[in-house]
Design brief:
38% of the residues lie in helices and 18% in strands. The chain has helices at residues 86-89, 91-96, 99-117, 125-144, 151-157, 159-172, 178-181, 209-217, 233-251, 277-290, 327-335, 345-348, 350-362, 376-386, 405-408, 412-415, 438-443, 452-457, and strands at residues 7-9, 35-55, 58-72, 77-83, 121-122, 196-200, 202-203, 223-226, 266-269, 296-300, 318-320, 340-343, 367-369, 399-402, 433-435.
Length: 460
């Protein structure tokens, strides 16, 4: 099956009774028009990786890009995309099934979500997703035979559904851009309009140090490096120590104008692979030994979420990612000493990410946008949030958005053709940053624009 082959799910269920939810008031008192979903559809396409992509002690060879289409009683429609990552969402499901099997389970959850909302009405996408994700999670526990299925698995399955709802909501209410679409309650945390966003590349286990240095030579400066390699805890630590030593030896003399120190910031992502705080301290001690400690901007998700380890005594800035499923989870992590939050509109839904961003803002905890290795259209959804977040400590007046699809998808340039404005300069990284000028903000990165190829696939 090539990348343009797809699986399409047709009309999923007969119409159910509407919820009867009242529409919230818009600015100035005019009520928003709710989204009343008359029918729903979904499909997926398989996107192969350039090389096996390693993290969480496993390797991906492809990802499924899912599209959902919601049609309203008015005749309007919204199409949203999502990229599935079974390994990121729940490594136990990935490990206990084939790669296709794990993806099929998540796609079944997307299909189930559409079955649930078909024929219903919701005041906004936020209310829809709040109502939907706990039910999809319970369904997922049955599908995967995993009673401890992580909430991110359900949220990842809902990204295309949530995005389709936002597009439909904007069209139903005549909203021209993303700023207008942000609910008033979440606007304080998304009030910036940065002129640039740092484009953060990702380097997994097998990427050679020379290739990392080439990225720096091309202008990339905020370096995300996967740690938590396969093996026992001792083997993992030894491999991580050897890996960062090799990388730092190549990058230690590199400089950037975007940090106060002029040195490259390091961003280490462990994806919950460290089981004990002592093991992480040994890793940190090694960073001090090789002179890399002062360059560490973030260590993301070092411990498994179920470990409930307080990190207040760890001097480096730790960020929560997949453990911060909901606002409550994010606040719990902040209470445990986490001092940054990785937002993932492209993995945990735009609706949930807006809520987490506001909660973190009120606690004065900085946020940035992390990637899931997503398609180009979703990079723009992620960037829409990153460009509006407060600046990250120690970095210049920039948004921070990770994007590594160009490094990992074999058909990246073909996938870029789905962008609403593929030739716009703000869709490309230039010397390590995305330029976010007036044209970018006027067009909202194209996230609310039509997706012609998908419209044809859905026979619209």
């Amino acid at each position: 099956m090539n990348r343009r082959d797809f699986i399409r799910m047709g009309a999923l269920a007969t119409a159910a009774a509407g919820t009867g939810c009242a529409s919230p008031a818009a600015k100035g008192g005019k009520p928003f028009r709710p989204i009343s979903i008359s029918s729903a559809d979904c499909l997926f396409e398989r996107e192969p990786m350039v090389r096996p992509f390693g993290f969480k002690g496993g390797y991906l060879t492809e990802e499924w890009v899912v599209a959902s289409c919601l049609r309203a009683d008015s005749g309007r429609f919204g199409i949203g995309l999502g990229t599935q990552s079974c390994l990121w969402s729940d490594a136990s499901v990935f490990a206990s099934n084939s790669e296709d099997g794990g993806n099929a389970m998540m796609f079944a959850m997307t299909q189930h979500a559409l079955r649930l909302i078909e024929g219903r009405s919701f005041p906004s996408p936020v209310e829809m997703t709040d109502w939907l994700w706990p039910q999809v999670l319970e369904y997922g526990k049955s599908v995967t035979s995993n009673p401890r299925l992580r909430a991110t698995f359900a949220l990842n399955s809902l990204v295309s559904v949530d995005n389709a709802a936002w597009v439909l909501f904007a069209r139903e209410n005549g909203m021209a851009g993303f700023d207008e679409m942000i609910p008033a309650a979440y606007r304080p945390s998304l009030a910036e309009h940065h002129a640039k966003c740092a484009s953060i590349p990702l380097f997994s286990y097998k990427v050679p140090p020379a290739e990392i240095k080439s990225a720096v030579d091309a202008g990339y400066f905020f370096m995300k490096i996967k740690i938590g390699q396969p093996g026992t805890q001792q083997e993992m630590l030894e491999r991580d120590i050897a890996r960062v030593s090799q990388i730092h030896a190549v990058l230690k003399d590199c400089r950037t104008p975007y940090t106060k120190t002029g040195r490259l910031p390091y961003y280490f992502d462990a994806n919950g692979r460290y089981e004990k705080k002592d093991t992480l301290f040994r890793f940190i001690d090694h960073l001090k030994k090789i002179g890399a400690y002062e360059q560490v901007a973030i260590i993301e998700e070092p411990f498994d979420e179920h470990a409930d380890i307080d990190v207040s005594d760890i001097p480096l800035r730790l960020a929560a990612d997949e453990s911060a499923h909901t606002v409550k989870d994010a606040l719990d992590r902040i209470g445990m000493g986490y001092r940054a939050m990785a937002l993932k509109p492209i993995a945990k839904t735009m609706s949930m990410s807006m809520k987490i961003a506001q909660a973190a803002f009120e606690k004065q905890v900085p946020c940035f946008c992390a990637d899931l290795t997503v398609c180009p259209v979703l990079v723009e959804w992620n960037k829409a949030v990153a460009a509006r977040l407060p600046a990250f400590p120690g970095i210049g007046d920039l948004g921070l958005v990770e994007t590594n699809g160009h490094q990992n998808f074999r058909n990246w340039e073909t996938m870029r053709k789905d962008l609403a404005h593929p030739d716009a300069h703000w869709t490309r990284t230039e010397r390590g940053v995305f330029e976010c000028d007036a044209d970018y903000y006027a067009k909202s990165g194209g996230i609310l624009a039509p997706l012609p190829r998908y419209e044809k696939l859905f026979h619209l």
